Amino acid sequence: MINILDYVISFLVGGFICFLAQILVIRTKITTARILVLFLIIGMILEVLNIYAPFREFAKAGASVPIIGFGATLARGAITASQEYGLIGVFTGGLTASAGGIAMAIFASFIFALIFSSKTKRGGH
Amino acid sequence: MDKNKRNVNYNLYVESKVPKTKAWPSLVKAFILGGIICAIGQGFFDLYTYLFPSLTESEVSTCMLMSIIFITCFLTGLGVYDIIGAWGGAGSVIPITGFSNSISSPAIEFKKEGIIYGICVKMFTIAGPVIVCGVVGSIVCGFIGLFM
């Protein structure tokens, strides 16, 4: 059951978040690593304040694909695990919840780095 | 005084020579690219919800992100993602594809320095801060969760 409205909202919300980031880039010449960290922390704050869950409910992939969603997943995992398992959960929760994304990023990068070589100079942003 | 004046003039000169990022087109491009990537994510989300009805929403979400990350690494390897990134600016950085590209791009770039000191070390030049802040931040959130 594909709901076309989900796609429209994902497009608009995801686009708007990138739009805000682009304003930052133009205004402050912020680097890639800083901008990723900034939005990651914004996601965590939203999750701790319990704003992210309703936002995600509304924006679907528009909320979970931007790096904000990654931050929120880390925060949610740590909070849930800490309430379930106590002190050990504080340390295991975040990485457990986000393990899939991090593992796939490292694995795929390693494999493709073995297969492909850079022919031209690449910026690496 | 004279020195200050010279610095002001120099700054004005630099200002006039630095290529200006045309604001509006780049904002619109970032909006469009970011929106398209999120819509593709929603497509994967619906596909996996349809294929694997037994998975929970967060598991489907993880699968969706993993698919996008894998595709981005492949496109980075082909050199396509750099072209997309040059067009879309922050629209290619903020989605999870930007995180993925920030790992795969230096990995491929520094391959010639060897597997350990090239690929494995340089992989985290940009993504390292993200993972460190992510882990430290999640532990802080965990402590907050203990007292919630």
Describe the protein in words.
Chain A is mainly alpha-helical. The model of chain A has no long low-confidence stretch (mean pLDDT 91). In chain A, helix 2 crosses helix 5 (67-85) and helix 5 runs antiparallel to helix 6. Chain A has helices at residues 4-28, 32-48, 52-59, 61-64, 67-85, 87-115. Chain A starts with a helix and ends in a 10-residue tail after the last helix. Chain A has one domain. Chain A is globular and about 50 Å long. Chain B is mainly alpha-helical. Chain B has one domain (22-146). Chain B contains 7 helices and no strands. Chain B has helices at 2-17, 23-51, 57-78, 80-88, 96-109, 115-122, 124-146. At the A-B interface, helix 1, helix 2, helix 4, helix 5 and helix 6 of A face helix 2, helix 3, helix 4, helix 5 and helix 6 of B.
Blueprint of the fold:
The complex is a heterodimer of chains A (125) and B (148).
Chain A: H1 4-28, H2 32-48, H3 52-59, H4 61-64, H5 67-85, H6 87-115
Helix pairs in contact in A: 2-5, 5-6
Chain B: H1 2-17, H2 23-51, H3 57-78, H4 80-88, H5 96-109, H6 115-122, H7 124-146
Mean pLDDT of chain B: 90
Q: What is the alpha-carbon Rg of chain B in Å?
A: 21 Å
Integer count of domains of chain A: 1
Biggest sheet layout of chain A: none
Q: List SSEs of chain A in N-to-C order.
A: HHHHHH
Question: Runs of chain A with pLDDT <50, length 5+?
Answer: none
**Tally of contiguous helical segments of chain B:** 7
Sheet-strand content of chain B, in percent, reads: under 5%
How many strands, which pairing sense, and closed or not: the largest β-sheet of chain B?
none
Total number of domains of chain B: 1
| Beta strand count of chain B | 0
Measured as a percent range, the helix fraction of chain A is: over 70%
What assembly state would you assign to the polypeptide chains in this entry? heterodimer
Class computed from helices, strands and strand pairing of chain B: mainly alpha
Name the biggest interface. Answer: A-B, 84 and 83 residues
